[in-house]
Design a protein that fits this description.
Elements lengths: L4 E4 L3 H12 L4 E4 L4 H6 L5 E2 L1 H9 L4 H6 L1 E3 L1 E6 L5 E4 H5 L3 E3 L2 H14 L3 E3 L3 E6 L7 E6 L2 E6 L2 E4 L17 E16 L7 E5 L5 E7 L2 E8 L10 H10 L3 H6 L5 E15 L2 E2 L2 E3 L5 E2 L7 H22 L3 H28 L7 H16 L1 H12 L8
Parallel strand pairs: 1-2, 1-12, 2-8, 5-14, 12-19
Antiparallel strand pairs: 3-7, 4-7, 5-6, 9-10, 10-11, 13-16, 13-17, 14-15, 15-16, 17-20, 18-19
Helix pairs in contact: 1-6, 1-9, 9-10
Length: 393
């Protein structure tokens, strides 16, 4: 098989890259180790920055998003059972967010791929990258019992944190930055109307989050110890614990329902540098992981794809490799901005098991300062909204 760009991973990053390249008449093949149904069923992020929505609209992928997504202007923060305060992103930086689940985005991307008869290989086994440092790399894998090889110009590693792409970068080249947090998030998805706003809660019993996927689909999280077991958390116990971490009026407004998905995820911050090596370019979770506190994971994947697709388009239309050479540095500027924002919110809103009385007081007064200072709220609004995508100079 031959193509110009081989994309490893059929998640949102890989499929969005494939779609944008197709619109620029650049041929690609997507290689995915899981089944199509598995990829579609993954429950992930659902809060989209305005820049992400703009990229989807510009590429003809926002019709359903515009009709079903829930637009909101910011987020509420509440701590220790006190009244909440609102970080008005719309007022401070004139940007909005849209709640629209990753599952829906994945469905939209697959539908677009079907319309153009995209080449996607599912259930690819033993995927290997070859000669990525050269100008003639290739990708091989088993499909239906046969070894298949793809000759390609470039490889886009969009296969997530546990994928093979990042592993193809030599250890003496790759530099990894990581912080593992001493707790996890227990989350449930339920077919019930959400609260009108995204609400972050810092409570003596631990962090909680009320989020949304659509006007009829709610996503809730609570902070749990790392050794928490899913079997210990019945729906009844979850709802009781969730309500205890919100003020009474807000707790009463939460509409309970049976969980249609329930999971526990550890929290970590991770960045790999560089995001390119030879003919290999990383995008999305293959290069970085952020705690979900800042709602940045999917949005960063989209900005990576924006920069990478622009660089590949420039190369194929002009022969100029400058944007490809600059891709890693360009993408990492936005990555580190979002990583820092997510780290700040994680430290601000969670109860750390190792915190002493000084740490706790300092956290509480940081929250009080944020509540009382318009300039502090404006600074957080700018960070939460995400940096604008860099324009060409």
């Amino acid at each position: 098989m031959k193509t110009l760009v081989t994309i490893i991973g059929a998640g949102p990053a890989g499929m969005l890259l494939s779609e944008i390249l197709a619109r620029q008449k650049i041929d690609s093949i997507v290689v995915e180790r899981q089944s199509r149904d598995y990829v579609k069923s993954r429950i992930r992020a659902g809060v989209l920055e305005q820049t992400t929505v703009d990229v989807l609209r510009e590429n003809g992928l926002a019709d359903r998003l515009d009709s079903e997504g829930h637009v909101h202007d910011g987020m509420k923060i509440v701590w220790a059972g006190k009244e909440s305060f609102f970080i008005d992103v719309k007022k401070h930086v004139d940007k909005q967010f849209v709640a629209y689940g990753q599952t829906s985005i994945q469905e939209d991307l697959f539908a677009a791929a079907n319309r153009r008869d995209a080449r996607i290989v599912f259930n690819a086994e033993d995927v290997k990258l070859h000669d990525v440092q050269s100008k003639k790399p290739s990708v091989s894998f088993f499909s239906n019992g046969e070894r298949v090889s793809i000759e390609t110009d470039f490889i886009a590693g969009c296969d997530g944190f546990h994928g093979v792409s990042r592993q193809a970068i030599p250890h003496d080249v790759l530099k990894e930055y990581e912080k593992v947090y001493p707790f996890g998030w227990l989350g449930i998805l339920t077919e019930r109307p959400p609260l009108p706003d995204i609400v972050y809660a810092n409570h003596p019993r631990g962090f909680a989050l009320a989020s949304m996927r659509s006007p009829t689909l709610s996503r809730y999280y609570i902070q749990v110890p790392l050794d928490a077991q899913l079997v210990e958390w019945t729906d009844e116990r979850f709802w009781e614990e969730l309500r205890s971490r919100f003020p009474p009026e807000m707790a009463r407004a939460i509409v309970e329902g049976p969980s249609i998905e329930k999971s526990i995820a550890p929290l970590r911050s991770y960045v790999a540098e560089p995001m390119s090596y030879g003919s290999l370019f990383l995008a999305g979770d293959s290069a970085h992981i952020v705690p979900p506190t800042g709602a940045k994971g999917l949005n960063l994947a989209v900005s990576d794809v924006f920069y990478l697709s622009r660089a590949l388009t420039s190369f194929y239309k002009t022969g100029n490799e400058a944007l490809l050479d600059e891709y890693s540095a360009t993408a990492l500027r936005r990555v580190w901005h979002s990583v820092r924002t997510s780290w700040y919110l994680t430290n601000l809103l969670h109860r750390f098991p190792t915190a002493n009385q000084f740490d706790q007081k300092a956290q509480e007064y940081e929250l009080e300062f944020l509540r009382s200072s318009a300039s502090a709220q404006a600074a957080l609004a700018e960070q939460y909204a995400g940096l604008p995508l860099e324009e060409l100079k």
